[in-house]
Amino acid sequence: MDVSGILASQASKYKSIAVEKDVPLEVDVGSLSATDLNPIEEEGYKIDLEEGLQNTARDGVQALISALFQLPTQSTADGPLAMLPPPKTLLPRAKPLPKPKPPTKWERFAAAKGIQKTKKDKKVWDEVRQEWVNRWGMRGKNKEKEEQWITEVRANADIDHDPVKAARDERKARVAKNEKQQVQNLGRAAGGTRSDRKQEIVKTLASSRISTASMGKFDKKLDGEKKLRGVKRKFDPTEEPGESEKKKSLALISKIDREGPSKQSRHNHAGKSDDVLNVRKAVRIASKGKGGVALGRELGGGNRPNVRGGRGGNSKRGGKR
Amino acid sequence: MLRTVKPRNARSKRALVAREPKEVEDTRTAVFVKGTHTGEILNNAMKELMSLKRPNAIAFSKKNAVRPFEDPSPLEFWAGKNDASLFVVGQSTKKRPDGLTFVRTFDGKVLDMCELGVDKFVSMAEFKTPKSTPGHRPLMHFASELFDTHPRFIQVKSLLLDFFGSEVIDGIHLAGIEHVISVSLAPTPSTLNNATQAIPGLSDESSDDTKNLPKIHIRTYTLRLLSSGTRVPRVELAPMGPSLDLSLRRHRPPDPEMWKAAMRRPKLKKQDIEKGLGKKKKNLDTDEMGDLRGRVHVGKQDLDKLQTRKMKGLKRGPVESGSSDEEDEEGQKKSKRPKAS
C-alpha cells in the first residue's frame, strides 16, 4: 500500500517547523535566547527591512521553541513546567559573592578543641508539671527558681536576702554577659586592632564632652575626671649641647646594630599571634593564680607532702558542702 | 573600625537583609533617568522600554544633570539608594541627539557603559496588535555574526541579555511565553570584515570609529503557536512594538579586574552537582525511581584473540619452512609450558 500520497497531503496542511541555515543557530535554552550567526543578506535588507527582520526572527524563535518543547517537563499545580538547564551564556553578577560569616570567639575555640555543636531542643520536660516547657522565654525553665512559691534559704543568710531577686539578678547577669560577648564578636568581625578601638572611644568621648551649648563648661564633672586638653605640639630645641646630641645619635646607631627584635616588638608580636588559647590566662587558671613557676614545682618537683596538702584542702571544701 | 548601620526594627532589618549579596541573585532592577534635555522620541522610547522591563523598573521623572561618561558618581549613588544595578540614561544634545546610555553596575560601581543613538522609534500604540502581559519573561533573539566576533557588539548583546533576561530560572510554563525581543544588525560592511580579519591590531581603532559599525534593529514580536502535526508547534510572529533603530556611540569597556570579580561563580552544592550542574560525574545518573544507576565501561574487546571452537582443520601446521616461524613456535611453546605444568 502506498501511503506517500496521504502523507504528502497531510504534510501540506501544516507549514514546516524545520529551520535550515548555513550556520546552525546557537540556542541557549537556559537563558531563553537564540543567536543567529549567519551574516545578514544585503539585498533582502535593502528591499524590505521589516519583512526580512521578521523572517530571521521567526526562524530563530522557531528553533528556540523547538528546543523548549523537547525539554523534560514537571507537572505543578499551575500546569506543566519545562525544566530549563543552567544558562550557557554567563552574565556578570550585580553584587559580589556573599562572604562567609566570620567565626565567633567560641566557634574558633570549639574548632581548635574539636568540640562538636549539639543542637538543644527549645522544649524541655518538666518532671513536676509533667509537661514540655520552654527552655527559656514565657514560663521558661530558666525562671524556675524565681517562680517557685517557696525557696530554701541558708540559716546564716542576711536578713534582707531575697532569693527570688538573687536568682533573677543571676539570670539577668548571664543575659548581659552574652550580649556583651555578641557586641565583642561583632567588633572583632568588623576588623581593627584593640588599640584602634580604644583610640576611637577616646576620640568619641572627647568630642561628646564638648558637644553641649556651653562647650562642656557647665557640665557635671565626675570624680577624678580629668580636664580636657588639646594636643600640644612639642619640638626639640634647635640648639642642643654636644653631649646630648651625641647620646641620641649613639642610641640610634645601637638600635640599628642590635640583633633581633626588641622586647617591646616581641611582646607586640606575641599579642598579635592568632592563638585562640590565651596562654597566660590558661596558666593563671591552672595554677589557681600562683603562676607558672609554682605550678611547675607542684607537678614536676614531686614534693609529696605538698601534694597531699592540696588534696586535704579539697576534701575540706567537700566537707563544707 | 567600620561603622555599621544597625537596623532599629524588624522591618528595616528584613529590608537590609534583602539587599545583601546573595548566591543566586534576583532580577536586576533598572532605573530610567532623564538627562538635562530629552526630546519626545527619547521620552517615549524610555517609557516603552520601561513597560517591557516592568515590574523591575524605576522611573526618575525629573530631569537630572548627569553625564555618565564624564562623572558616573551620581549613578553609583542611585545604585546604592535604589538597590538597582542597571541604568538607562536619556540625554539629547546637539552633538549627540537622542542618546540612550545603558549602564551596568557591579557592587555599586559602574561596570560598563554603552551609548546608543535612537535613529528611529516606532511606538507600541502604532501597531494595532495584541500586546504581551507585563512581567512575562521574553525570549531573546540575536542575529548577526558580529555578536560573536566584534567586541562592541558582544558588549551590546551581554547588556541587552542582562537587561531583559538576567534572572536564572529553572522552569518555565510554556504557555506563558508570549513575546520575543529580536536584536539584529544591518549587513556587515566590507571594511569591518577586512579590518578585523587582516589587521588584528587595528581592531581597537575600528571599534572606536562608530561610523563604520552597522545599525542595531530592536524589534518586539508576539508569538502565535500553531499546530504543526507534531509535538513542536509552528511559530508565527506579529509585531508588537516598540521597535528601535539604534546606532552605536561612545562606550566604556569593563575594567578587567572588576569583570573578573563580577564573573566569579559560587561553589556548586553537592546536590546540584548530582543533578548535573557544574562538573558532571560520568557514567552516573538517577533513574525515574530516584535510584542511582551506574554504567560500567568495559574496554574494547579484541576479537582477534577470541578463542573459538577448536578444530583439527583450523590448527596451524607444524611443518613450515623459514627460521622465523620456528622461533615463533618456540616462543609459543615456552609460554605454554608453565600453563601445562
Walkthrough of the structure:
The complex is a heterodimer of chains A (321) and B (341). By secondary structure, chain A is mainly alpha-helical. Among the domains of chain A are: 14-82, no CATH class; 121-149 and 162-185, no CATH class; 277-321, no CATH class. Chain A contains 12 helices and 6 strands. Chain A has a two-stranded antiparallel sheet. The longest helix of chain A is centred in the middle third of the chain and has 28 residues, at 163-190. The model of chain A is unreliable at 304-321 (pLDDT under 50). By secondary structure, chain B is an alpha+beta fold. Chain B has a domain at 26-254: Brix domain (Rossmann fold, 3-Layer(aba) Sandwich), CATH 3.40.50.10480. Chain B contains 10 helices and 13 strands. In chain B, the strands form 2 sheets. In chain B, strands 1, 2, 3, 4, 5, 6, 8, 9, 10 and 11 form a 10-stranded mixed beta sheet that branches. The longest helix of chain B has 18 residues, at 323-340. The termini of chain B are far apart. Chains A and B meet through helix 1, strand 2, helix 3, strand 4 and helix 6 of A and strand 4, strand 6, helix 5, strand 7 and strand 8 of B. Strand 2 (33-36) of chain A pairs parallel with strand 6 of chain B.
List the defining traits of the structure above.
heterodimer, A: 321 residues, mainly alpha, 12 helices, extended, B: 341 residues, alpha+beta, Rossmann fold, ten-stranded mixed beta sheet, two-stranded antiparallel ribbon, 10 helices, 26% strand, rRNA binding (chain B), Brix (chain B), nucleus (chain B), Ribosome production factor 2 homolog (chain B)
